[in-house]
Design brief:
GO molecular function, one term: acyltransferase activity, transferring groups other than amino-acyl groups
Protein name: N-acetyltransferase
CATH superfamily: Gcn5-related N-acetyltransferase (GNAT)
InterPro entries: Acyl_CoA_acyltransferase, GNAT_dom, N-acetyltransferase
Number of strands: 8
Strand content: 15-25%
Number of helices: 5
CATH topology: Aminopeptidase
CATH architecture: 3-Layer(aba) Sandwich
Strand order of the largest sheet: 1-2-3-4-5-6-8-7
Number of domains: 1
Keywords: Transferase
Pfam families: Acetyltransf_3
Helix content: 25-40%
Radius of gyration: 16 Å
Largest sheet: 8 strands, mixed
Order of helices and strands: EEHHEEEHEHEEH
Length: about 190
């Protein structure tokens, strides 16, 4: 497959986000329950969700990005998920965020598995990464079901919760260059 902008899984319709998805994506990203483990990530205004949608358009120019997720062709967007392969990162970023009403059905795992498979085709030399908070057990399970394993654990730089712990999962054992990039990206910097 050369165009991953539209993919069908067993139960889901995965499509490159379009402007018509903005209201549904904002509803999901603005919902406090969607950000229970990281409240500062919540989208407080439509402009922030628009920036996410605009960034998605750029990500897709590299062959893969985050999809708008529907459980039928005509249904509302119930999530945003996928794997973004961006030029300035040596890994593909696995992401999944769903409407709280759609959780508990295995949708995140279904999309995550499809996204990892797509990333292996689009950028086979690039590892797939999921980074998440240790307290988010459901997200950890999703990453693990998608075949990722824990490779880094440490304080979550910039998190308003000083006790927050960040976990980094990869789909393969990191080589020295990837390990150095992970350390550089996720290790908190001392205040200057």
């Amino acid at each position: 497959m050369s165009d991953w902008r539209h993919l069908r899984t067993g139960r889901l319709w995965l499509d490159e986000p379009v402007q018509d998805d903005l209201e549904d994506l904002h509803r999901i990203h603005a919902d406090p329950d969607s950000w229970a483990h990281f409240p500062q990530g919540r989208h407080l205004d439509l402009a922030r969700t628009q920036r996410t949608l605009d960034a998605s358009e750029v990500e897709w120019t590299h062959g893969l990005g985050y999809w708008s997720v529907r459980d039928s062709t005509n249904g509302p967007v119930i999530g945003m998920a996928g794997c973004a392969v961006v030029a300035d990162r040596p890994w593909g970023n696995l992401y999944y965020r769903f409407d709280p009403a759609a959780r508990g059905r295995g949708y995140a795992s279904e999309v995550a598995e499809a996204a990892v498979e797509a990333a292996h085709v689009v950028a086979p030399d690039r590892p797939v990464m999921a980074y998440l908070l240790e307290i988010n057990v459901a997200s950890r399970r999703t990453a693990e079901k998608a075949g990722l394993t824990l490779v880094w654990r440490g304080p979550d730089a910039g998190n308003e919760d000083p006790d927050a712990v960040r976990l980094v999962y990869l789909d393969r054992e990191p080589d020295a260059a990837i390990r150095a990039a992970v350390d550089e990206h996720f290790t908190p910097r001392p205040a200057v």
